[in-house]
Design goal:
The longest helix has 21 residues. The strands form four sheets. A seven-stranded mixed beta sheet has the order 4-12-11-10-9-5-8, sandwiched between helices. It has about 425 residues and is an alpha/beta fold. The chain has 14 helices and 16 strands. The radius of gyration is 21 Å and the shape is globular. Helix 11 packs parallel to helix 14. The protein has two domains: about 160 residues, Aspartate Aminotransferase, domain 1, CATH 3.90.1150.10; about 250 residues, Aspartate Aminotransferase, domain 2. Bound molecules: ligand KE4.
């Protein structure tokens, strides 16, 4: 079994080498295990619901590379599509047929997406939605929600100012105060706070952007009427409503969270699942807004590898498999099986907990109180979470290395894997 806090010998050696040449030893901060302590393991390979570290230790994987591997790792159909396509060349710099195929599929699956543009990350997708909304409306202000993460573009690395309506403040070094000042932040699930902001400056707001089901503060569920209220307010004030479905898109159903919850945004950002594990982002929506995008219109956006044929091949193979394998019904069945087992285990234990799930996305907080926004999530016991994380890892189960992330199931998490996970949860909770 893997040693909890310290990674295996070869992962430790790799991390030492990485620290000498990569900032923090990782190419994306959350991978460094800073939130839970210890050192990250280095993945050598992954297959189905299992991921294998450099020392050969295997883990049942509930990170699923942060969402993309919804079929499971190294799905044969996805691998074959990428290998076959690679033999034809990896990038052309002129349009290729697969870009059209995937764009047609996205427009067919998500009502309200009339036009869609491919890019190479979720950050690009959300950043481009904001530029498009600003170009379309001629306005500058943005309204976002505490705890919603939309990638690392300057306008979205912003936290709430001191008062409800004061200017946003940078949430990262290097973000100019002048840029942050254009982004206002209010608590999720707080419609009166949104109404107050829109009443005051709604005529200056270009976009209201949110994760319809936030999954970057742990998992938070929108309360009844919240999303429909946002829809009505954005329409009333002429602001563009943007759903960031980089995580939820094509995971919670063919039309993502917007299809599940019945609220249609003006623009949507996508990523992760549509790339099948390769770098893909996309954004799309109303024809009149998307038509403002170069070269059709005056809002500039570009990308050397946007619509890359390998990434398109992986995304197409993954989406087609979701469609033919009745994926969403099975993911719901697997999620319900896991939830039923976890709740039974938790009911037998005298510790505070909040369990949240939607489809194949779930999260466990150690908290007495319901978690309805970021402030609630931050009041949870993150030290207990860190102990739980490492105890689970020692049991061969890998969940996201932070309380403020969400777990994912894939089609490869069969009943056996879930039952093994429940045994691991039971033992890990005993020591957390
Ligand atoms: P990327 O630029 O990382 O492809 O996507 C940014 C993004 C945008 N919107 C949402 C809702 C997201 O969850 C993300 C990225 N998610 C994180 C996980 N919390 C990716 C993991 C990481 O940063 O390494």
């Amino acid at each position: 079994m893997s040693v909890g806090i310290r990674s295996g010998h070869l992962s430790h050696q790799l991390f030492e080498r990485a620290l000498a040449v990569i900032p923090g030893g990782v190419n994306s901060p959350v991978r460094a295990f800073r939130a839970v302590g210890g050192e990250p393991f280095f993945a050598q390979r992954a297959d189905g619901c299992q991921i294998y570290d450099a020392d050969g230790q295997s883990y049942i994987d509930y990170v699923c590379t942060w969402g993309p591997s919804i079929l499971g790792h190294a799905d044969p159909e996805v691998i074959a599509a990428v290998v076959d396509r690679a033999r034809m060349g990896t990038s052309f710099g002129v349009p290729n047929p697969l870009e059209v195929d995937l764009a047609e599929m996205i427009c067919a699956w998500v009502p309200g997406v009339d036009l869609v543009r491919m890019c190479s990350s979720g950050t690009e997708a959300t950043m481009s939605c904001l530029r498009l909304a600003r170009g379309f409306t001629g306005r500058d202000r943005i309204l976002k929600f505490e705890g919603c993460y939309h990638g690392h573009s300057d306008a979205l690395l912003v936290k709430a100012g001191s008062g409800a309506l004061t200017l946003g403040q940078p949430d990262s070094a290097g973000v100019p105060a002048a840029v942050a000042a254009l982004t206002m932040t209010v608590p999720f699930n707080d419609l009166p706070a949104v109404e107050a902001v829109m009443k005051d400056v709604g005529h200056e707001v270009a976009a209201v952007i949110l994760e319809p089901i936030p999954a970057n503060a742990g998992l938070i569920l929108p309360e009844p009427g919240f999303l429909s209220g946002l829809r009505e307010l954005a329409t009333r004030h002429g602001a563009v409503l943007v759903f960031d479905e980089v995580m939820t898109g094509f995971r919670l159903g063919k039309a993502g969270a917007q299809g599940l919850l019945g609220v249609r945004p003006d623009l949507s950002a996508f990523g992760k699942v549509i790339g099948g594990g390769l770098p893909v982002g996309a954004f799309g929506g109303r024809h009149d807004i998307m038509s403002c995008l170069a070269p059709a219109g005056p809002v500039y956006q570009a990308g050397t590898l946007s619509g890359n044929p390998l990434a398109m091949a992986a995304g197409l193979a993954q989406l087609r498999a979701l469609d033919t394998r009745d994926a969403f019904a099975r993911l719901e069945m697997l999620g319900a099986r896991l939830e039923s087992g976890v709740r039974a285990i938790l009911r037998d234990r005298s510790l505070p907990w909040q369990w949240l799930r939607t489809g194949s996305m779930f999260c466990l907080f150690f908290s007495e109180n319901p978690v309805r926004n970021l402030a609630d999530a931050k009041r949870s016991d993150t030290k207990r979470f860190a102990r739980f994380f490492h105890a689970l890892l020692g049991e061969g189960v890998y969940v996201p290395p932070s309380q403020f992330e969400t777990c994912f199931l894939s089609l490869a998490h069969d009943e056996t894997a879930i039952d093994r996970t429940l045994e691991a949860f039971d033992r890990a909770l005993a020591v957390a």
